[in-house]
Every structure is written in structure tokens, then in C-alpha cells.
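Bump. Still looking for Glycosyltransferase family 9 protein C-alpha cells.
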Amino acid sequence: MRILFITSTRIGDAVLSTGLLDHLLRENPGARFTIVCGTVAEGVFAHLPGLERIIPVTKRRWSLHWLELWRQVAFRRWDLVVDLRGSAIAWLLLARKRAVMKGGRRSGHRLLHIAEALGVTPAPRPVAWFSPAEAARAAALLPGGPWLILGPTANWRVKMWPAERFIALAQKLAAPDGLLPGARLAILGGPGEAERQMAAPVLAALPEALDLVGRLSLPEAAAVLARGALFIGNDSGLMHLSAATGAPTLGLFGPTPASEYAPVGARAQAVLAKGPPANTPMQRLAVDQVVEAAARVLALPVPA
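Sorry for the wait, here they are.
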């Protein structure tokens, strides 16, 4: 069985779509998958079981990227085409079955919208795939523990919790009377100078922290996150990736809708700045509020 799976260009949405892929894997043993995604999200699918090919898409003027994609996939008969972009391309291909997600903004969590494309209920949780080699590298980078992992960057600066609060939070959680006494610190962020500048104040104030900003592939980041005692970060792709590993994860929200993009995992929660949902500055999220939320996440049972 050959499945064409068209998903998001962004990391966070791509991670959320992994639950549906995992469902298809379980329902169709031996299926071969071609994944269409953004170039930044390729690593999310690098170790997908049954992966045949990843087709990275870069947006072009006049939507010419869709024409280029059609040229790459049109001359094959597909058993199933899943299009989470809500485009017309699924209807222009030879396929036994098609599942196209409705486009546009809607109420409800993005995960529910993704699952609705195939009529799957309940919506399957995201998963994270990484290799034994990447797990070994993560173990070498993060020996022992516990490790508190912080994600102080975001793709939009207004989503960033102030650096001084990340610093105060880390010191409070790792204190002898904190939730993670003696915890070691690691700082994660994406590649590029902009991400490094966003993380710089936190790194400067916590010189003992392990600096992993821009130094990991996505599968390596997943392996590192899976070793964390707790991840706390802004609404970002790393937040979704952490939740997908099953690690305790706390996502920080202010001006973006947690109702649509809260982290999804067995031990994942969102904490919202006090004010109108999706319309409140991150400055209104207090350190003590995050500590209280961290205690709730850490108290959640470990899945069997």
C-alpha cells in the first residue's frame, strides 16, 4: 500500500500530524509513505517507519510549488492520498481513496481537525521518531539527571516569555527546596542567528546550562527532549515535539490560542497568561503561576 501524506510546512503542525500517521501505520502494516512537508519540518519524519520518500516544499510565487509537487507525484497510482493542506491536489491524482482536511481557521484544537480528515476518533496523540544513534547521542549530551530543559525562543517575538522570568523559574525549580532540586539545565532553540539572539539573555544568565541552541537536528532534539525531567517553553515547534516524546511538557501561552495549539501528550499541559485567551501579553504570566503548573504536570502518572 502506497500512501501520499501532505502535511504542514511548519514544525508544530507537522508534529501534530504524526498521530494520524501513527494511526495509518497501525492500520496498514507494511504501508509505504511519501511525505510532503516544509523543508524545516523534514526531520520530524526522517525516521518514520515505512518511509519511502520525503518531498520538501518551498513556497513559490503564484502557488507554483503546487505545480512542481504535482509533477513529482502525478505519475503514480496511490492507494491513499491524505492532504492536510486543504488543497486541490488530491483530486488531481490517481488514487483509490482521498482524505482532504478542510481549510481555514476553525474553533477547536488543531489535532481534532487533523483527525477529522480521516474520521478518526479519538484523535491520536502525536509521536516522535528518532534512531538508536540519536538516542545514544542524547544520553551522552545529557548524562544522569534530572534535566530541566528550557525553550525560550519562538518564531514570533510576542510569543516569548521574558528572559528574566525563564531565569528566575530555572533557579526556583532547581533550588534545594524546588520541584527539581539540583536539576541540570539545558537550553534548546532552532538554527540561525535570530534564534541564538533570542536565547542569548537566558544563556548569559545561566552559564552552567548546556547550550544546545541550533546544534541539533529535529530527531536529535526529540531524543534530548525525551530524556528531560521537564520541558518548559514558549508556544513553538519544540514544545510540540517535547509533548510528542511523552516527556513532561509545559507550554507557555499569551497572545496565541492554547485552545487550538496547546501541547498534546500524556504528560503535557498549557499554562495561560492571566487575561483574555489568545489576546494577553506574555508579561502577564507570572513565575509562580508557571511553578504551580509545573507541579501539576510532574504529578501526572507515567503511562504504562
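Residues 2-116 form a domain with the Rossmann fold fold (CATH 3.40.50.2000).

Edit: fixed formatting.
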